[in-house]
Structures are given as C-alpha cells and as structure tokens.
Amino acid sequence: MRVLFAVLSFLGFFSAQHAVAEDGPVVVELYTSQGCSSCPPADALLHDLAAREDVIALALHVDYWDYIGWKDIFGRPENTQRQHGYARAANERIVYTPQMVINGQDHLVGSRTGEVMGAVERHLALGQVFDVSVVRQGNTVTIGADPGPRGQYEVQIVRYLPKATVDIRRGENAGRTISYANIVTAWDAVAQWDGRQALRLRATISGDEPVVVLLQSVGHGPIVGAAQLR
Fold first, then answer.
1. Mean pLDDT across 167-179
2. Does the keyword Signal apply (predicted)?
3. Among 23, 38, 59, 107, which is least packed by CB within 10 angstroms?
4. For the domain 3-229, what is the CATH superfamily, name and number?
C-alpha cells in the first residue's frame, strides 16, 4: 500500500506517542530472492529477528535473479535500486543475495548468523541518534522527533506484509516451501529534515499493513532513527 501524501510542520510538541523508539531499535534490511539457493538460511534468520522488539527486520526481495527460472512473486525493482544505492554509497562494485544491511551502515552476508547478531548487538549498544514517535489514527499517521544533530535526513515510510509461505516450483529452490517474514511492499521518502527543529509530520496511508518510519541520512547513509507500528 502506498503513502498518499505528507505535510510537514514544525509547530508545538507532539505529546501522544503510540510508538516511540526510545531504546533505538536496530533496522535490519535483508536483500533476498526466491530464486537464490543461498537465501533460505538468511530468510530464516530474518524470521527470528522479526520476532524481537528491539529490531525492525525488513525483507526486500530483489528482481535480478528472476531470469534463472523462477520469478520472485515479491520482487520489486525499487528494492534492487535501493540495494544498488547502498553499493554506490559504499563504493562497492557488485550486489548480491543474501545481503543484510544493518542501520544503513554495516553490509554483511545475511546467512552468517554470528556476524549478523554481533552487528545487531553493537548497534543496540550505540542506540539511535533520534527518538521517533508514530501515531496512527485511521488513515493518518503522525510522526515526531525532537531536534538533534544537524544534517540532511530523509523521512521514509515503509509498509510490509508480516508473513507469507511460497511453494517454489522452478529455479534453484524448486520443490521447496519457504516462509518469509516482513516482506516490504512499499518504501516511500515523504520529506526531508535538517534536525534543527522538532519534526512534526502527518501522512495519509491506506491499508492495514504495519507501518515503519525511518530517519536516514540522505544518500543511503546511516539510519539515525526508527519506529514501527505492527
């Protein structure tokens, strides 16, 4: 489901907080594909991460393996573009699956459980730069954050399908039934913010999918604030 519009204002202090990222949840992005035989262990790991309250786990299915025999039913070119954006920001020449990006900063092989969990714990210890609040009333979400370090930040709203199971009939995973968690269906940049004044943002959304709000440094930089409404 898409975000329909957003209006930004900087008036007053937002007091009603239904979801607040006080402890700085860690954002884990998994770039995966149903056509990738190396991805199921990473998909399973994302299931575990999605169950945690201190992690926002998001599965971004890419489309560049569709040609090898199975078209990923969740694959989105926008996800592929986002992964390429991270590669450019890190001066990396290739993209791959399964890849996990932790808080927009650490790029890891998504099936290496020890390395992924170590990175998650390090980022939990650091916390987030900004606490983000999110309230939903009907089709309107209101987002808030107090002033902090000055920068160029993008306010992003993400929607996801919490779970799905797929019978894969062709390609590298032919004959397997694989469960997926937190499958991204929309990722919209709705505003920019410099951090100098309180952030007060209202956006209209549709559908009943969970809502994730991210503050990310422009240019696929670090994620500096996050919250979600499941």
1. 96
2. yes
3. 23
4. Glutaredoxin (3.40.30.10)
